Amino acid sequence: MLHFNKSKSFLFIGLSLFSMVLYSCKEHPKQEVVDRKYVLPDSLLKTIKLDTVQMKPNVDAVTLTGVVDFNQDNMVHIFPLVSGSLQGIKVMLGDYVHAGDVLGTIKSTDVAGISSSLINAQSNLAVAKKGLDAAKSLFKSGLNAQTDVVSAESNYQQAEAELARVKQVMQINGAGGTGATSVIKSPISGFVVEKFVTNNTYIRSDNGNPMFTISDLKNVWVMANVYESNITKVRKGDRAEVTTIAYPDRIFNGTISEIMNVLDPTSKVLKVKISLPNPDYALKPQMFTTVNVIQNEGGQSLAVPASSLIFNNSQYYVLVYKSPSDIRITPVTINGTTGNYSYIKSGVQQGDVLIASQALMIFQELNG
């Protein structure tokens, strides 16, 4: 009897708990999650760039790869003119120097020999001058002939010529005075772009390697590669737009100044040279570049900033801006890119305002 009453009590408690759970669910129904609409924050709105869809002239562009190089016409290799030991090098790689600045000195036995020749030439000229003066004095006194004066004048002129020759040799070799030191000076203003020597290095005048290379980087070359399939699409004088990884939003405008007309035997590409002004030295030698060779086709098409395009799942999109709370993801079809602009076949209309910076981040926010 006791066992039956305990079982009955447990059944009653279980039914009571079940009833309480059902009541609780009825009193507190499950709440639905409300999806909040994305609104562009004011702080982000102040930093993003807005641009418009506009009509631009149609152009045909060939995209090439290239490398920034020195302007060979404004570059000087400095070779040793005498043998000796390098001393007092005053410049480092990348330093800017002016024409006439001292780069270093060479202690040389060659210069010592030239200095000795200078002393001899000066002494011989002094002796020749005294001989000429004496010959003229004796001729006036009638003690010698005219031929003696002519001979003395000839000796004096030869001594003068020899002294001038020795001075020119000293100037060419950078020697000064009567010492054994040759001074190395920069012949042009520019940057030290190559440096192959250090202090106490012994160099020879018959060495074919330069000590320094000075280049004026205010004008540089871009050497671009043209594959065989594009050779007929580039011509001398074509306008070229050059971009770099370092300055993705900046276009450097130049022209094709030379086509090499010989394929590189290793890479099998044709080299073309593009001359570019570089007043702020932004372009550094050996920078990799992308080159768009521009050729006008005529007519106009809708164009959008290339920075406004978003590529996702094999489809291009742009963000059409109406207000901070009304930004529409719009699929577009592009017809090529030239420089900072892409041509559009469909998807937007002229005058539409687009988000042209940080578009990918906002696109991800809109997609939740």
Commentary on this structure:
With 368 residues, this protein is of the alpha+beta class. 27% of the residues lie in helices and 38% in strands. The strands form 4 sheets. A 6-stranded antiparallel beta barrel has the order 2-11-14-13-12-15. A 4-stranded antiparallel beta sheet has the order 3-10-8-5, with no helix packed on it. A hairpin with a 2-residue loop joins strand 16 and strand 17. The chain is elongated and about 120 Å long. The two termini are 65 Å apart.
Q: What would you say about this model in short?
A:
By secondary structure, this protein is an alpha+beta fold. It has helices at residues 2-27, 42-45, 109-141, 146-172, 359-366, and strands spanning 50-52, 54-69, 75-78, 84-87, 96-97, 102-107, 181-185, 190-195, 202-203, 212-215, 219-226, 239-244, 252-263, 270-277, 288-305, 310-312, 315-323, 326-338, 341-346, 353-355.
Break the fold down into its secondary structure elements and pairings:
Layout: H1 2-27, H2 42-45, E1 50-52, E2 54-69, E3 75-78, E4 84-87, E5 96-97, E6 102-107, H3 109-141, H4 146-172, E7 181-185, E8 190-195, E9 202-203, E10 212-215, E11 219-226, E12 239-244, E13 252-263, E14 270-277, E15 288-305, E16 310-312, E17 315-323, E18 326-338, E19 341-346, E20 353-355, H5 359-366
Antiparallel strand pairs: 1-20, 2-11, 2-15, 3-10, 4-6, 4-9, 5-8, 6-7, 8-10, 11-14, 12-13, 12-15, 13-14, 15-19, 16-17, 17-18, 18-19
